[in-house]
Write a structure and sequence with these properties.
The structure is a single chain. By secondary structure, this protein is α+β, with helices and mostly antiparallel strands. The chain contains 9 helices and 7 strands, in the order H-H-H-E-E-H-E-H-E-H-E-E-H-H-E-H. A hairpin with a 2-residue loop joins strand 5 and strand 6. Helix 1 (9-22) crosses helix 4 (68-80).
Length: 198
Amino acid sequence: MVKMKDSPNNKLIEFLAILYTLSFGQRLGRYFLKEASGLGEGVLRRILSELSREGYISVKRGGTVITDKGREFLSRLIAKIGYKHISPIDVKGIVKHSYNAIAGVTSQSIKNVVQARDCIVRSGCLGGLILFYTGSKLVLPPMGENYLYENFPSFVKELKRIPLEEGDYIVISFGGKIYSLVKGLYEAVRYSGSGDVL
């Protein structure tokens, strides 16, 4: 089994970025994975070798595909970084451009959304959004509970496809390669909101 306990955090993010990219079911070539993830050729080769050795992916002449064991490992990695699930999201309804974007749902409290968004940007993304789900409404702090509904109804419609529970936060990173997007989610939740890093 790949040892995550002793691995640096960026190795965890690398594994997560590749498995997440493969999780959409297509067989993907190494060049595509390199371009989509933003990882270098040598790093990608190492990751693919480690994931293949553990049975998390199948690498063949036609490309790489995630295995059922890999999907289970991906779910564990997502939980390890503090999320219930992550998924792609269309942010055009709020930022007026189409960017690569992913949304993660967490029950961990994010006390300082501005600093959490800064963590996302420092991870290599163009931006980030942090929303809170309360009283069956999505709130974009510090704008108030009706702001999204009055100003960005198409974005609210996009967000409603995400399963949420009372008190959940949605963390969105956008405008980067997959590695940066995943790292942005990781850093936003890792930041406790008290000035400390978990």
